[in-house]
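Protein folds are increasingly written down as C-alpha cells. With that in mind, we are printing a sequence and the C-alpha cells encoding its fold.
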Amino acid sequence: MIVDMIFLRSLPTASLASVRITSAIMIMIGLMHSPTARGDESPQYRGDQFVIGVTNRRDNGDMTRLVSPLAKPVATSVVQVVCGGRPVALGTVVSSDGYVLTKRSELTGDPILIRMADDRLLTARVAAVRRGSDLALLHVDSSATASPGSFQALAWASDVPPVGSFLISPGRGGRTVELGVVSVLARPVAHQGKLGIYLEDDSNGHARIFKVHPESGAAQAGLELDDRIVAIDGKSKLSASSCVETLGSLYAGESVRLTIDRSGSTMEVDAMIREYNVMQETENDSKVNGPRNKRLSGFERAIQHDTVLEPDECGGPVLDSQGRAIGLNIARAGRVVSYALPASLVMPEMVSMLEEARAAAR
C-alpha cells in the first residue's frame, strides 16, 4: 500500500566600540536566566514598593539600548511586508531600484504593500521566487524609488559566527526586534511538508484515500475515506505512487488543487500542505511552542538560533555582534528555535532573482 503524509507504505569591520558592546552583552548574558518568551516578568522591590519589572530577559530595555548602535546602520534596509491588510513578514532591501527580499510562503495574494522606515506604504509586486529557499523578490513601483536614498541596499557578510555567538534581529527603522545566540551552524533542514492522506491503489490501480490525518490540511479541506484522486493541479494522476511523488514535491504553506471522484461524482478541492511535526503536536505542545510560520522545513542550509521571533518578524536580516548581516531570518520553528538562511546561500539566490526580474522588466 502507498501512503501520503505524505506517507509511502510499501558592522563592516570590528571597532573598539563594537568590541566594548559585545563584551558588555556577553557579561549581561552570563547574568541572565535562560531565554524566555516575551512577556516573562519577575517581581522586585523599588524603595518600599513591590513592582513587577522585566529583569531576566535578553530583550529588556537596557539590552536593546546597548545593541541599538549595531542595528541603526541597517535602519532603512529593513521594511515591513503587508499582505491582505495585515503585516506578514519583514523585508530586506537588496537593491536601490526598489527590490526587496522576503519570506515567500507568507505572501497570500494581492495587494502587497511595503511599509518603509519612514512609514510610507508603497505598492509592490512579486518579481521572482525561489521555492526551495522560500524566498520572494518584491519590486516596488519605480516612481517611489526616484528620490535618492529611498532604498538602501543591505551589505552581506558571508562569515558565519561560531556556536554561542550573539545575534541581533533588527526590525523596521533600526528597532531591535530580538536578541539570540547561534545554536547550530548551517545545516540542511529536512522537508516535512505533508498533505495528510494515506493512499493505496484500488482494484483498478487508482489512488484511493484510506485514512485522513485529523489535524491536516486534507482534513480541513474535507477529504474523506474512499475518495479517489483523479488529478492534481489539473494534471491527471492514476496510481498512488504517482500522487505521492507529486504531493511530496510541495512545501508547507503551498496549496494544491485536487480533482476527486467521490461515489461517482467529480469535485474540485483546494487543500493546504502543512508541517508534519506541527500536525502531530498536542495542544500543550502548541501552547509551549507558540505561533510559528507556515513553512518551517525544507531548507538546503539554515543556521539555527534561539531568538524568540514572531512569525511576521521573519524575512529581515540577522546581524552578528559587529553589526554585519550574516543571514536572513526565514522561520520561527519553535519556542527557542528559529532558522536563518546564511548569507552564503542568500547572496547567489538574490543575484539570480535580480537578473531574472530585470530581464523580465525589459
Remarks:
- The chain has a mean pLDDT of 85.
- Residues 193 and 251 are 5 Å apart (CA to CA).
- The longest strand covers residues 176-189.
